[in-house]
Write a structure and sequence with these properties.
heterodimer; A: about 240 residues; mainly alpha; about 80% helix; globular; B: about 250 residues
Chain lengths: ~240, ~250
């Protein structure tokens, strides 16, 4: 492995670590309490919102990159795109799990329940299931070429079904607050975005994007190393 | 019998080619004939064995009965649960049929034969898809009057029939492609529902909503959103399956 690339990756790791620390400081200490929340528990719970939104960015990026890499794989048939699709889907599932978990932790004090079958939550669960199914499909196939082709096809289908599912929930009542763009009169537990809260949210989203990129680079490298080992094993077997 | 042999003397039997034999019309009708030949093959083998449709029907009936046990004692108005029960029965029995569709082909080595035929791969997709759609519709044609009878509801109305047709079309469009995929996986019977159900969620939501709406007497114009969602789903995923089927059956 080239020295320059190692250095580059180390730099990315350091930037990601600093960004996460900055977000933690901003979210937990620097950002003021949301003005319209009354109880101390609600105000404390609101601070998880920054990580919730950040993880959302990670999940969204993960699934978008899987989609794009899947299409490119089908056209180019180069293994690297399949590795990228797999790595990105795994990271997407991790971040989506974090979205569901942080959302539940917030919902407990604010909505007084861990989970409710609100359409927004249901869609998030369906998206999570879509990509868990993607990973299961990969696990059920042994031939690498076929696995890559089928996974790419499913990666495309999964990504197309997200907006359709999302559309169908927009026509339902939802109690989930819409933070960006428009306010929902049915929403419960929403809050107004002051300038410092907005800034913290954007910093969190950028930081998670960097964290996602750093993890992706490592995951792809791991996948390449695993393939090299497979090839070496075949050589000496 | 004195049958003219068109292979040896095409000029004699086809003295004046019609529009169907030249140009794009010939291409379209030839393509359609190939698609229908594949559908016919599935229909004939089903008529001989009767193993898919009967299993789907019995399974749909069982699902309905289990829902009866689960809901009957606690629900005041069956109208509230019947749309859901109907669509679960359709989805579950549909998966059963879709699974058989390609397992049948692959177990007897027929898939290779099918792929060796000189037809476009997409014709195979459309043929299998129409066959699956047909089997599912046959089951639904029996299930719907039965639902009307068992739950004392007017299930046999044009609106519900239209929704069931469009929803089944979506299920068959996605399900046929995924069936061709999962037949090659380990634990293949289990993989299909895991892959299929998250993708067809919009069909199930729209199907349940509109079936319920028609039962409550809502006009179609008030459910235009759902109708558009259903038609949009059918078109988008049929096109996607058409474009990706080549990659799935490629060796």
């Amino acid at each position: 492995m080239a020295k320059g690339r190692d250095l580059w990756m180390l730099g990315l790791d350091v930037i990601a670590a600093i960004a996460v620390l900055v977000v933690l400081y901003m979210a937990l200490v620097w950002a003021p309490d949301a003005a319209n929340l009354t109880t101390p528990v609600e105000r404390a719970a609101q601070r998880i919102f920054y990580l919730h939104m950040g993880a959302n960015v990670g999940a969204g990026l993960g699934f978008l990159v899987t989609f794009v890499a899947s299409i490119i794989y089908l056209f180019s048939r180069r293994r690297i795109w399949d590795m990228l699709a797999l790595s990105s889907a795994e990271l997407g599932v991790v971040f989506a799990t974090a979205v569901l978990a942080t959302g539940s932790i917030w919902a407990r004090p604010t909505w007084n329940t861990w989970w409710t079958w609100d359409p927004r939550l249901t869609t998030a669960a369906i998206v999570w299931l879509l990509y868990v199914a993607y990973l299961m499909l990969r696990g059920a196939l042994t031939d690498p070429a076929r696995r890559a082709r089928f996974a790419a096809v499913y990666g495309i289908f999964a990504f197309f079904s997200v907006p359709l599912t999302f559309m169908s929930i927009r026509w339902w009542r939802t109690i989930h607050p819409v933070v960006l763009g428009g306010s929902n009169p049915e929403a419960q537990g929403g809050f107004t975005l002051g300038p410092s809260i907005r800034l913290t949210m954007f910093v969190a989203m950028i930081a998670f994007a960097i964290l996602y990129t750093a993890l992706l680079v490592h995951r792809v490298r791991l996948e390449r190393a695993a393939e090299e080992i497979e090839q070496l094993k075949e050589q000496f077997a | 019998m004195n049958r003219p042999n068109s292979r040896i003397e095409p000029a004699v039997t086809q003295a004046r080619p019609t529009a169907f034999e030249t140009g794009w019309l010939a291409g379209v009708s030839g393509y359609l004939r190939k698609v229908l030949a594949i559908v016919w093959k599935d229909v004939v083998s089903e008529l001989r064995t009767r193993e898919i449709v009967s299993a789907m029907f019995v399974f749909a009936l069982l699902a309905t009965l289990i829902f009866q046990f689960a809901f009957d004692l606690r629900v005041d108005n069956v109208r509230q649960v019947v749309p859901g029960v109907l669509w679960v029965a359709i989805a579950f029995s549909g998966v059963l049929g879709l699974n058989r569709s390609f397992i049948m082909e692959s177990d007897k080595g027929c898939l290779e034969g099918l792929l060796l035929t000189p037809v476009d791969r997409s014709a195979i997709y459309f043929g299998k898809m129409l066959g699956n759609l047909l089997f599912m519709l046959v089951v639904e044609v029996i299930i719907l009057p039965l639902f009307a009878l068992l739950f004392n509801l007017p299930m046999w109305m044009p609106g519900i029939l239209l929704v069931v047709l469009l929803g089944t079309f979506g299920l068959a469009a996605v399900g046929t492609l995924f069936s061709a995929m999962t037949v090659n996986t380990r634990a293949r019977e289990v993989m299909l529902p895991i892959l299929l159900f998250p993708v067809v969620v919009p069909v199930l939501i729209a199907g349940v909503r509109m079936t319920g709406g028609f039962l409550d007497g809502t006009a179609l114009s008030e459910m235009r959103n759902w109708m558009q969602l259903l038609i949009g789903f059918d078109m988008v995923f049929l096109a996607l399956a058409f474009m990706t089927f080549d990659y799935v059956v490629e060796e």
